C-alpha cells in the first residue's frame, strides 16, 4: 500500500474551556476522496486548516510528503493585494504550470479574469478562489464548502471537473448529492475524535446511527454498573478494608469517567408557528413580465399556487429567480401582468443574505427583539435560554454578538427567529447554505410537515428532491417552466441532451400538461419544417458533438496559448459557439419530440 501524501495523527486543540479536537486524525493518499463530516462547530474547518498547515494544534503531528502540492479552499477567501481575478489565480500556479488552465477555469466559473478584486461580491471571490486551487492540479485538494454561491450548472461542472482530476480530495460540504457523487470514504468528526468509514457518503448516515446506538447501549451498561456499585456501598461494605478501599476507588473512577464522557449534542427542534389557514389559492400570476433596460428578466409568466404546494425555483445565477420570487410575494411590482395574493396569506421569508441579523446585536437581543428575556412563539412566551437550546445554542452564548458566530450558527439563529413568527407561506431563499447535515434533515422534515405553502430557491438537488412537489426552472430569456416533482423528476422530464430520448413519452403524458410551454398538443399533424427538423437534428447534434470533441482536443495543448494566442482565442470562441448551437439543437429536438408524441397520443 502506498504511503499517504498527507497524515494527521492524534491532533488536539483546546479553545477556551472547550476541547475542540481530542485525538483527531486522518490520512489521504493519491486519488483518495474523503468527505469530512460533523456538526456545525465540531471543528471540521479547524481540522482542515491544520491539514493545510495554516494552524498549529496544541499537540499531535502533521506529515506531508516532500514535494507534494497541497491547495486549500477557505470559506472566506482573501484577494487583497491582487489587481484582478486573473492575477490572483495565476499567482497560485507553480513554475511550469499551464497559464491557459487559469483562463479556462475562470471562464467556466463565470469570470473573465479582468474583474477588480476590490469590487467582487462574496460569490465572485469564492469562485476566483476555487479557480486558484484547481489551476495547478495539485496532489491534495482541501475544499471547505466549495459549492457555496455556485449555481446548479456550476456545481455539476465542478463535480465533473473534480471527478476527472487525479488529486486526493478532502471535502467539507452540506450538499449531499455532491458528496454522494464524489466521496469514496467518510471521516466523521464527533466530540473531538474522528471515525472513518471506507464506503461512500450514501452509507454514512446509517453507519453513524448504528455507532450512536451502540454507544448508547454501552452507556446504559455503564450506568447500571455504577448503580450496582452504589448499592454495594450502601448495603455491602464489610470489614475487609483493602478490598473495600479498592472498590471505592474503582467507583470513584467510574463516576469521574461518567462525568467526563462527552455526549452527543442534542438535535435541533424545528417547528414553524402556524398563522390562520390561508385561502385555497395562495398566489395567482397572469402574464407577468419584468425587464431591466433591454434585458427581459421574466417574460409572460403565469402560475397558480395552491395551499400546501411546495414549489422549488432553480436556474443559473442571474436568471431572475429572486426577482420572480419577489414579484410572486408582492414585494416587487411587475412591469406587465397581475399578481394576486390569496386571502389571509401571512409570509415569513428567509433571505440568503441573512440581512435580518444585525451583527452588533447579541443572540438574546435578536430573539427577544431587545426587550426582556422572553421569546414569543405564536401565543406562547418562552424564556430565551430555553428557546436557544432548541437550536443547539448554549446558555453562555446568549450574550454573544452575532458577528462572531460561524455561518452555520447564523443560519440556525435566523431560522430560530423566523420560525417563531406565525405564517402560512414560507419563502426560503437558499435555506441550506451553511447548515450541517443533521439540521438540514430537520429543516426538510419541518418543511414536509408545514401546514402552509412553501416557495424555495435552492441549488441543493437533494433538498429539492425531498421537499418539492414541483420545480420551476429558468430556461433563459425570461422564460420559466414548471415541472411536476422534485429535481430528479424535472431532469427526467426535461432531459439532458440526446441521452434523454427515452423521456419523451413520459414527458408528453405527465410533464407537458404541467409545463408552461408553447408545445401543448392539438389536433393537427407536424408540418413539413417540423418533420424535417426532427429528422435532421440528430445528425446535426452528432456533428456538433464531434466538432466540440475536436476543438477540446486542440485546446488541450498546454503550449498553444503561449505559442499562438490568436489561434487559442479563435478556437475558444468557436468552441463556445458550437456548445451553444448544440444546446439549442437539443432543446428544439426535445420540444419537437414531445409535440410528436402528444399529437400521436391524441
Question: Could you provide a short overview of the structure?
Answer:
The protein has helices at 44-51, 85-90, 99-108, 122-134, 152-164, 176-182, 204-235, 241-260, 321-328, 363-368, 384-389, 407-419, 437-449, 461-467, 487-494, 503-514, 528-555, 560-563, 565-601; strands at residues 6-15, 18-28, 33-37, 59-64, 70-73, 140-144, 168-172, 185-190, 193-197, 281-292, 295-306, 310-314, 336-341, 347-350, 374-377, 380-383, 425-429, 453-457, 470-476, 479-484. The protein has 602 residues and is an alpha/beta fold. Helix 7 runs antiparallel to helix 8 (241-260), helix 15 packs across helix 16 (503-514) and helix 16 (503-514) crosses helix 19.
What does this structure look like?
There is one protein chain. The longest helix has 37 residues, at 565-601. With 602 residues, the chain is α/β, with parallel strands linked by helices. It contains 19 helices and 20 strands.
Straight-line distance between termini: 63 Å
Shape: globular
From the 3D structure, determine the CATH topology of the domain at 6-205: Rossmann fold
- Poorly predicted sequence stretches spanning 5 or more consecutive residues: 239-243, 497-523
Strand order of the largest sheet: 5-6-7-3-8-9
| Helical stretch tally | 19
Tell me what portion of residues adopts beta-strand conformation.
15-25%
Write down how many β-strands occur, each being a DSSP E stretch of 2 or more residues.
20
Instruction: Return the CATH class of the domain at 6-205.
Output: Alpha Beta
Amino acid at each position: 500500500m502506498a504511503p499517504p501524501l498527507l497524515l494527521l495523527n492524534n491532533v488536539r486543540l483546546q479553545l477556551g474551556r472547550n476541547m475542540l479536537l481530542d485525538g483527531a486524525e486522518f490520512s489521504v493518499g493519491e486519488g483518495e476522496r474523503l468527505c469530512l463530516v460533523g456538526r456545525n462547530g465540531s471543528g471540521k474547518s479547524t481540522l482542515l486548516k491544520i491539514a493545510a498547515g495554516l494552524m498549529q494544534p496544541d499537540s499531535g503531528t502533521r506529515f506531508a510528503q516532500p514535494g507534494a502540492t497541497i491547495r486549500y479552499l477557505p470559506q472566506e477567501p482573501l484577494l487583497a493585494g491582487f489587481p484582478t481575478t486573473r492575477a490572483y489565480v495565476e499567482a497560485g500556479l507553480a513554475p511550469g504550470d499551464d497559464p491557459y488552465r487559469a483562463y479556462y477555469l475562470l471562464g467556466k466559473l463565470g469570470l473573465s479574469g479582468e474583474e477588480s478584486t476590490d469590487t467582487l461580491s462574496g460569490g465572485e471571490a469564492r469562485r476566483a478562489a476555487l479557480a486558484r486551487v484547481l489551476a495547478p492540479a495539485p496532489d491534495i485538494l482541501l475544499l471547505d464548502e466549495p459549492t457555496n454561491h455556485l449555481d446548479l450548472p456550476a456545481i455539476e461542472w465542478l463535480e465533473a471537473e473534480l471527478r476527472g482530476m487525479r488529486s486526493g480530495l478532502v471535502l467539507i460540504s452540506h450538499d449531499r448529492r455532491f458528496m454522494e457523487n464524489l466521496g469514496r470514504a467518510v471521516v466523521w468528526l464527533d466530540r473531538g475524535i474522528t471515525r472513518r468509514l471506507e464506503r461512500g457518503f450514501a452509507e454514512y448516515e446509517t453507519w453513524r446511527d448504528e455507532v450512536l446506538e451502540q454507544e448508547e447501549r454501552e452507556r446504559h451498561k455503564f450506568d447500571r454498573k455504577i448503580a450496582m456499585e452504589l448499592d454495594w456501598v450502601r448495603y455491602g461494605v464489610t470489614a475487609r478494608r483493602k478490598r473495600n478501599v479498592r472498590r471505592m476507588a474503582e467507583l470513584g473512577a467510574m463516576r469521574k469517567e461518567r462525568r467526563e464522557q462527552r455526549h452527543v449534542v442534542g438535535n435541533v427542534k424545528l417547528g414553524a408557528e402556524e398563522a390562520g389557514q390561508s385561502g385555497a389559492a395562495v398566489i395567482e400570476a397572469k402574464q407577468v413580465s419584468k425587464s431591466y433596460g433591454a434585458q427581459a428578466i421574466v417574460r409572460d409568466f403565469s402560475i397558480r399556487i395552491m395551499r400546501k404546494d411546495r414549489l422549488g425555483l432553480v436556474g443559473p445565477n442571474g436568471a431572475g429567480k429572486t426577482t420572480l420570487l419577489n414579484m410572486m410575494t408582492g414585494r416587487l411590482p411587475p412591469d406587465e401582468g397581475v399578481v394576486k395574493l390569496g386571502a389571509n396569506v401571512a409570509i415569513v421569508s428567509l433571505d440568503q443574505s441573512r440581512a435580518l441579523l444585525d451583527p452588533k446585536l447579541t443572540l438574546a437581543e435578536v430573539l427577544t427583539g431587545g426587550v426582556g428575556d422572553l421569546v414569543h412563539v405564536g401565543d406562547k412566551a418562552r424564556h430565551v435560554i430555553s428557546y436557544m437550546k432548541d437550536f443547539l445554542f448554549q446558555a453562555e452564548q446568549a450574550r454573544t454578538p452575532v458577528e462572531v458566530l460561524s455561518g452555520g450558527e447564523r443560519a440556525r439563529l435566523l431560522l430560530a427567529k423566523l420560525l417563531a413568527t406565525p405564517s402560512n407561506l414560507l419563502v426560503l431563499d437558499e435555506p441550506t447554505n451553511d447548515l450541517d447535515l443533521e439540521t438540514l434533515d430537520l429543516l426538510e422534515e419541518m418543511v414536509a410537515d408545514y401546514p402552509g405553502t412553501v416557495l424555495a430557491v435552492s441549488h441543493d438537488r437533494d433538498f429539492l428532491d425531498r421537499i418539492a412537489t414541483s420545480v420551476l426552472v429558468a430556461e433563459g430569456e425570461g422564460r420559466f417552466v414548471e415541472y411536476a416533482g422534485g429535481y430528479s423528476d424535472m431532469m427526467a422530464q426535461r432531459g439532458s441532451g440526446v441521452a434523454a430520448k427515452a423521456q419523451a413519452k413520459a414527458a408528453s403524458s405527465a410533464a407537458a400538461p404541467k409545463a408552461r410551454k408553447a408545445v401543448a398538443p392539438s389536433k393537427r399533424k407536424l408540418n413539413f419544417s417540423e418533420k424535417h427538423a426532427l429528422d435532421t437534428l440528430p445528425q446535426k447534434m452528432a456533428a456538433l458533438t464531434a466538432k466540440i470533441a475536436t476543438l477540446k482536443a486542440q485546446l488541450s495543448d498546454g503550449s498553444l496559448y503561449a505559442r499562438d494566442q490568436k489561434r487559442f482565442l479563435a478556437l475558444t470562441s468557436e468552441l463556445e459557439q458550437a456548445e451553444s448551437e448544440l444546446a439549442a439543437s437539443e432543446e428544439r429536438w426535445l420540444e419537437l419530440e414531445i409535440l410528436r408524441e402528444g399529437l400521436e397520443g391524441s
